[in-house]
Amino acid sequence: MSDEKRRFRNALGWFTTGVVVITTRVEGREPLGITVNSFSSVSLEPPLLLWCLDKGSDTLPVFEQCDYFTVNILHEDHQETSNQLSRRGDHSLAGVDVRAGETDVPYLAEALAHFECKVYARHEAGDHIIMIGEVIGFDHKEDGRPLLYHRGAYHALPK
Ligand SMILES: Cc1cc2nc3c(=O)[nH]c(=O)nc-3n(C[C@H](O)[C@H](O)[C@H](O)COP(=O)(O)O)c2cc1C
């Protein structure tokens, strides 16, 4: 990575985020999940949200094809799941506690909230694709603590 790219990433690292796992499934393949922090709400009417996928990801063919995905907001105890689903080339949900959703995309049982989405739009943006989803169902826990990501490391809210 060039020095300028690294400097850009380091600057962005000051923006502290939560961590989500995007789950999806296409016909004839096992469901998969990928850890991302480029998640944002977009619109209330209609209910839209977005996240960005690196075009270099080996999950690209699946996300180019899928009709649905689910956004799962991780709990602070979810570091291992976050690491598992950010390992290059291995996005299997094996060993992850999942439940069947309203779509045929599974969601993470322990997620603080999950949003089941129909793909609303895909926009090319440089080396990423902006995936916009229309929320067709969601649920959330009443309490719990989120996993945070700040300057390249996990954190938790102060107790
Ligand atoms: C906290 C965190 C946030 C991440 N955010 C994104 C993201 O927003 N978009 C993305 O494409 N990859 C993101 N990644 C990287 C992917 O999880 C994963 O490491 C990468 O896609 C692995 O390569 P592969 O997809 O080719 O297997 C993030 C990883 C971590 C640990």
Kindly describe this structure:
- This protein has a seven-stranded antiparallel sheet with strand order 3-2-6-9-10-5-4. Strands 1-11-12 form a three-stranded antiparallel sheet, with no helix packed on it. It has a two-stranded antiparallel sheet with strand order 7-8.
- The protein has helices at residues 3-12, 60-65, 79-84, and strands spanning 17-18, 20-24, 32-36, 40-43, 48-54, 68-73, 98-99, 107-108, 113-125, 128-140, 147-150, 153-156.
- The chain has one domain (3-152): Electron Transport, Fmn-binding Protein, Chain A (Pnp Oxidase, Chain A, Roll).
- β9 and β10 form a beta hairpin.
- It is mostly beta strands and 159 residues long.
- Flavin mononucleotide binds at residues 19, 34-38, 52-54, 57-59, 82, 86, 88-89, 149.
TL;DR?
With 159 residues, the protein is mainly beta. The protein has helices spanning 3-12, 60-65, 79-84; strands at 17-18, 20-24, 32-36, 40-43, 48-54, 68-73, 98-99, 107-108, 113-125, 128-140, 147-150, 153-156. The protein is 14% helix and 42% strand.
- As a percent range, the share of strand residues is 35-45%
* DSSP helical segment count: 3
What order do the strands of the largest sheet run in, or round the barrel if closed? 3-2-6-9-10-5-4
- SSE order in H/E notation? HEEEEEHEHEEEEEE
How many structural units, i.e. domains?
1
Class computed from helices, strands and strand pairing: mainly beta
Low-confidence stretches: none
Biggest sheet record: 7 strands, antiparallel
CATH architecture annotation name: Roll
How many individual β-strands?
Answer: 12
Look at the structure and give the mean pLDDT.
97
Q: What would you call the shape?
A: globular
Computed Rg: 15 Å
What is bound: which ligands?
flavin mononucleotide
CATH class annotation: Mainly Beta
By CATH, the superfamily comes out as: Electron Transport, Fmn-binding Protein, Chain A
CATH fold-level assignment: Pnp Oxidase, Chain A
